[in-house]
Design goal:
This protein is an alpha+beta fold and 390 residues long. It has three domains: 3-114, Butyryl-Coa Dehydrogenase, subunit A, domain 1 (Orthogonal Bundle), CATH 1.10.540.10; 120-233, Butyryl-CoA Dehydrogenase, subunit A, domain 2 (Beta Barrel), CATH 2.40.110.10; 237-381, Butyryl-CoA Dehydrogenase, subunit A, domain 3, CATH 1.20.140. It has helices at residues 7-22, 26-35, 40-48, 67-79, 88-92, 95-100, 103-114, 235-271, 283-312, 317-341, 353-361, 370-381; strands at residues 120-124, 140-143, 147-155, 165-171, 185-191, 200-205, 213-224, 228-229, 273-274, 277-278. The relative contact order is 0.11. Bound molecules: flavin-adenine dinucleotide.
Length: 390
């Protein structure tokens, strides 16, 4: 067992996170939700306490914790009724730089990301016309005398307005000229703040939840040669290598959401008295909650297994994807049972249930939709023919 999966350390993490979250009650999130505003004070509190640098090795100024510890951080944030989506990318997007960046890039960026003076929160992969089919993306990076020039468009680039840096995936070799179908895409680390208004345009997208997501346009954006991360043409595999960590961490957020919904529903079912007794004494109210609880407990085990395998460096693709799907299903089921338990009050903003319900729905679609996980499991887990991107 590594030091950062020691149960007493994990307990300490849980109580430290709970303490921070105690300063950000439902009222805080409700108001932000109404205004579609960014939770700056919450993100600053997590940054100041060092939690967003949890996965950065100590030699670069981070806490050097592992994924198991990071799942505890994110789960607790969500179980406390908060939402980590405003800043979770600061924790894991740097993984691509850590694993594939040059020494110069690591020295330059990782310590600043660890202390929060630089925010790497924007991850530009999805495009309007390619969607899940990442290899069909159209944004290009072409070599120039001084570096690269970027043209194209990204969509759903979350937190771009609250980030100094962006990790961008762009095509550097036309699709019909690559030896392998997965070749020809490259990853760049853009000092985005300097480029807004100089070729980069960011447009917020208003969504059903408060998520600070945007579309980003690139019009002849010039970037230096040393913005390239790793080897040219190998970007797709670099991005894939970070996606399992993201799936495990977001699965942990879903477990946190499920716990919040179940706590809230149980409290309400015990307190609300109708027909002369608590509504929670009726099996029609209990059973959907008990079922959601059982599914949450099962999903929680899979998240723990995926995180452990990841930390051990063992194969974990099946487990990471399964964890993401089961946890997203568990949080959605718990949300549905919680809302139903609250009857009409579930729809009232002041109970926070409808807000969390909207927030947790996202995880059926992003960062990977359930269908694509099922396709992956059918192929890699069961050996059925590949159904997509042949
Ligand atoms: C709020 C929000 C934040 C996001 N943040 C980011 C971000 O920061 N960076 C980023 O790069 N992306 C981000 N995304 C994008 C997200 O990852 C994509 O929305 C998601 O991967 C699905 O892509 P799509 O929306 O283009 O759907 P499509 O690919 O168009 O799919 C639409 C539907 O068809 C289904 N489908 C597609 N192909 C198949 C198939 N072969 N078999 C079965 N079903 C299929 C999908 O499951 C889905 O239900 C975000 C999205 C949202 C909504």
């Amino acid at each position: 067992m590594s030091a950062s999966s020691d149960p007493s350390l994990l307990d300490e993490i849980r109580s430290a996170i709970r303490k921070i979250c105690g300063d950000f009650p439902g009222q805080y999130w409700r108001q932000l939700d109404q205004e579609r505003a960014y939770p700056t004070a919450f993100v600053e509190a997590l940054t100041a306490s060092g939690w967003l640098g949890a996965l950065i090795p100590e030699e670069y100024g981070g806490a050097g914790l592992n994924i198991q510890a990071a799942t505890v951080i994110l789960e607790e944030i969500h179980a406390a009724g908060c939402n980590a989506a405003a800043c979770h990318a600061q924790m894991y997007t740097m993984g691509t730089v850590l694993r594939h960046g040059s020494d110069e890039q690591k020295q330059k960026y990782l310590p600043a990301i660890a202390d929060g003076s630089l925010r790497l929160q924007a991850f530009g992969v999805t495009e309007p016309t390619s969607g899940t089919d990442t290899l069909a993306l159209k944004t290009t990076a072409k070599p120039t005398d001084k570096g690269w020039v970027i043209n194209g468009q990204k969509i759903w680039t979350s937190r771009a307005e609250h980030s100094d840096l962006m990790l961008l995936l762009a095509r550097t070799t036309p699709r019909d000229q690559v030896a392998k179908r997965t070749d020809g895409l490259s990853v760049f680390l853009l000092e985005m703040k300097d480029l807004v208004g100089r070729g980069i345009t960011i447009r917020p997208i208003r969504t059903m939840l408060n998520h600070a997501t945007t579309e980003v346009f690139f019009d002849n954006v010039e970037i230096p040669a040393d913005a390239l991360v790793g080897e040219e043409g190998q970007g797709f595999s670099y991005i894939l290598s970070g996606m399992n960590a993201e799936r495990i961490l977001i699965a942990a957020e879903c477990i946190g959401d499920a716990k919040w919904f179940l706590d809230k529903a149980t409290q309400y079912a015990n307190d609300r008295s109708i027909f002369g007794g608590p509504i929670g004494q009726n099996q029609g109210v209990q059973f959907p909650l008990a079922k959601a609880y059982a599914h949450m407990l099962g999903a929680e085990l899979m998240v723990a297994k995926a995180a452990k395998l990841y930390d051990e460096g063992a194969a974990h693709g099946i487990e990471a994807n399964t964890a993401k799907m089961l946890a997203a299903d568990a949080s959605w089921e718990a949300g549905e049972a919680c809302l139903q338990t609250h009857g009409g009050f579930g729809f009232a903003e002041e109970y926070d249930v409808e807000r969390k319900f909207r927030e947790t729905r996202l995880y059926q679609v992003a960062p990977i939709s359930t269908n694509l996980i099922l396709s992956f499991l059918a192929e890699k887990g069961l050996g059925l023919p590949r159904s997509y991107g042949k």
